[in-house]
Amino acid sequence: MSEESTAYDAGMIVALEGLDAVRKRPGMYVGSVGRRGLHHLVFEAAERALEEVLAGTAARVEITLTADGGVRVADDGAGLPVGRAGHTGPGGPGDGPGDGPSLEQWLTVLGCGIQPVNRRSLSGGYSGVGLAVVNALSDRLTAEVRRGGARWVLEYEQGVAIAAPVRTGPAEGSGTTITFRPDAGIFETLEFSFDALAEHFRELAFLNRDLDITLTDDRDPAAPRAVRFRFPGGLRDHLAEQGGPLHPDVIAFERECPGMEGTVEVALRWCDSPGERVTSYANSRPTAGGTHELGLRDGLAAALTAHAREQRLLAPSDPDLTPGRLGAGLTAVVSVKLDRPEFEGCMRERLGNTPVRACVAEAVREHLAAWLRAEPAQATAVLTRIRAANRR
Question: At residue 61, does pLDDT exceed 80?
Answer without folding.
Answer: yes
